[in-house]
Amino acid sequence: MLYLASESPRRHQILKQMGIPHQVLKVPSPPGEDEPRLPGEDPAHYVRRTAREKAERALNWVQTLQDGRRPDSTDPSEIVPGLPILAADTTVALGQDILGKPSDLDEAAALLQCLSGTTHTVHTAIVLALPGPENTEESAQILEDESVTEVRFKRLTTSEIQWYCATGEPMGKAGAYGIQGAAAIFIEHISGSYSGVMGLPIFETHRLLRQAKLL
Question: Cα-flanking dihedrals φ and ψ of residue 140, to 5°?
Answer without folding.
Answer: -70, 150
